[in-house]
Amino acid sequence: MRSAARLYAVQALFQMEVSGQTVERIVREFETHRFGEVLDEGEMAEGDPKHFRAVVDAAVNWQAKIDQLTDRALVAKWPIDRIDPVLRALFRAAGGELVEMDTPPKVVINEYVDVAKAFFPDGKESKFVNAVLDHMAREEKPAAF
Predict the structure, then answer these.
(1) Which of 3, 11, 87 is CA-nearest to residue 56?
(2) Does the entry feature the keyword Transcription regulation, yes or no (predicted)?
């Protein structure tokens, strides 16, 4: 359920950025309509609403710090505002867990690499996500390594 909550958090952060809607409106929409939604392909995972809300809140509340962490993990020519918006949302969600929550960094890395694979099943993005999150985690929580 936490894995599904992470996927939903990335979707919510992406939707906030592209639509300009408030965090409250997006969270309410996801909790009311998206969790457990039945689609043609089958039923969506229920997700953990408490974890979803904690990840989104941490990503929003700590966005400046998270973006700085991400920028330091990226090469100089590719600041966070130049990367794919889905990846930007993913780094913010993962960064929220690294900065604000007690989730072990290795769990954060593994979980969000899996999220990257869900969004980019045929690409190299998961390896990129792994490298960036590893750098961010080592900077934010060096004692965990």
Answers:
(1) 11
(2) yes
Average pLDDT, the chain: 90
Q: How far apart are CA 80 and CA 48, in angstroms?
A: 28
Q: Contacts by 108-117 with C-beta closer than 8 Å and gap 24+? A: 108/133, 108/137, 109/133, 109/134, 109/137, 111/2, 111/3, 111/6, 112/6, 112/10, 114/3, 115/3, 115/6, 115/7, 115/10, 115/90, 116/87, 116/90
Instruction: For residue 46, give its domain range.
Output: 2-144
Residue whose token pair is 């974890």:
51
Report the predicted TM-score, pTM, of the whole model to 2 decimal places: 0.90
- Return the CATH number at 95: 1.10.940.10
What's the structural domain count of the chain?
Answer: 1
Q: Are 115 and 76 in contact (CB under 8 A)?
A: no
